[in-house]
Amino acid sequence: MAEPTGFARTWRRGWRDWRDWRSWRARLLRTWRSSLQFRTVTITVVLSGIAIVMVGVYVSVSVGNDLFQSRLSQVELDSNRATSAAQGILDSSDAADRVQVQSLLASARSAISAASSSRLVAVFRVPGQDPSTSVPQDFSTFGDSTEVISPELRTAVQGSPGTQFWQSVALATDDDGQVAGIVVGSQITVPVAGRYELYIGYNLGEAETTLQFVQRTLGIAGLLLIILIGAVTWIVVRFVVTPIRVAAETSQRLASGDLGVRLPVKGDDVITTLARSFNGMADSLQSQIKELADLSEVQQRFVSDVSHELRTPLTTIRLAGDMLYDQRAAFPLRRVVLRNSCTPRSSDSNSCSRTCSRSASTTPGRSNSRPSRRTSCTSPQMPSRACGRSPNPRAPGSTSSPREDTSTRRSIPVASAGSCTT
After folding, report:
1. Does the structure show a pLDDT above 80 at 414?
2. Per DSSP, what are the bridge partners of residue 416?
3. Banded pLDDT at 362 (limits 50, 70, 90)
4. Rounded to an integer, what is the distance from CA 109 to the centroid of its chain?
5. N or C: which end of the chain has fewer CB within 10 A?
6. Residues 6+ positions from 78 with CB-CB distance below 8 Å
7. Is CATH 3.40.190.10 what the domain over 25-257 is classified as, yes or no?
């Protein structure tokens, strides 16, 4: 037996998953969250379905009311005409006994059926009249539907002679079913027998059949319209969502590092403008990243060159420092003495001669090859004053301040004194 292809395996696995009805809710929720096209189509179909149902209900109710009102008007007209015909027959008769009255009522019933086009007729004697032997018995052709004549309707007819009353009822059919109908009641006067209640029933089966046909047509048309709206919405949204999906996938690839990916540009619509802007942004981003990469490469090359150029001088300086440190015992220790003196040259109090002497002497026991040097300097604008100065922040008269050389680890005493004599 041949192995199923990849599509067949995927289809079978999807069919097994969809057969598990308990996972439908999770799948629908996941599809709802992840698919913009599914959400758009679902919302459009639901809202369109609600609108179509509302319109269908309104049309159905309106058509039903119109059918009922038109049928009611016809029923009232027929009932009035039948009642008038029956009353005319009764008024033109001179019946005096029960048999003649019974025959008269039969003739009136035939006239009522002919005038009203209805076989449902009932005649009941109005209660509360004087009993008489010539009074005919009540009769009804409603059969099992006689109880549909409610006590409220009979009370209204009994209390208002000359007025018609109607009531919506459910009439029994020959197949033990029920059909909508109307019962119209009024009074007639029978010679010798007195007043009688006349009820005529009308079957509204034809109007109900027409209404059901209209409702069925509206339901089928509404369902087809919802399906058509869903299909059209799916196609339209697909045209709109597909470029957005492509843009999302392209942006993901661009974010992952594929800087050469671009959106296709077709037409001159808004999606095309979006594609051009996205491609321009991608080009700018790619160029800036390339510039940064080139700059980073230049910096790395510069750092490498500088480190290479500085390696030789630093090595030389370090070797010289190590050599000096190793020969530190052979270097002479030198003592430096600084003396400053200021002596007036004339009697002018605003002039003063300043003589600076510097002598260098070696530490006892060491020879000094350099002679002592003395430098004399004169400051003609020096004011006449007496002061004592010392480069050392200590009090005047201090002779030396030890200073430690960190390189030779030897103390070099420095003696300095300063005086000014007026």
Report:
1. no
2. 338
3. very low
4. 73
5. N
6. 115, 116, 117, 118, 200, 202
7. no
Contact 379, 346 (CB under 8 A): no
Cα–Cα distance between 401 and 392 in angstroms, integer? 8
Contact between residue 78 and residue 107 where contact means Cβ atoms under 8 Å apart: no
Going by their DSSP bridges, the two strands 334-343 and 353-362 should be labelled as antiparallel
Q: Is the pLDDT of residue 222 over 90?
A: yes
Whole-Å CA distances, 171 to 127, 145, 146, 407 = 26, 6, 9, 130
Q: Give the predicted TM-score (pTM) of the model.
A: 0.56
- Read off the pLDDT band of 16 (50, 70, 90): low
CA dist., res. 199 & res. 244, Å (int): 73
Report pLDDT digits (tens) over 179-215: 889 999 999 888 878 888 999 999 888 888 899 999 9
Contact criterion met (CB below 8 Å) for 158 and 124: no
Give the Cα separation of 335 and 366 in Å (integer).
Answer: 11
Q: Where do we find the tokens 């539907």?
A: 145
Model pLDDT for residues 19-53, shown as the tens digit of each residue: 666 677 787 788 888 888 888 899 999 999 999 99
Of 341, 361, 340, 357, whose CA–CA distance to 413 is shortest?
361
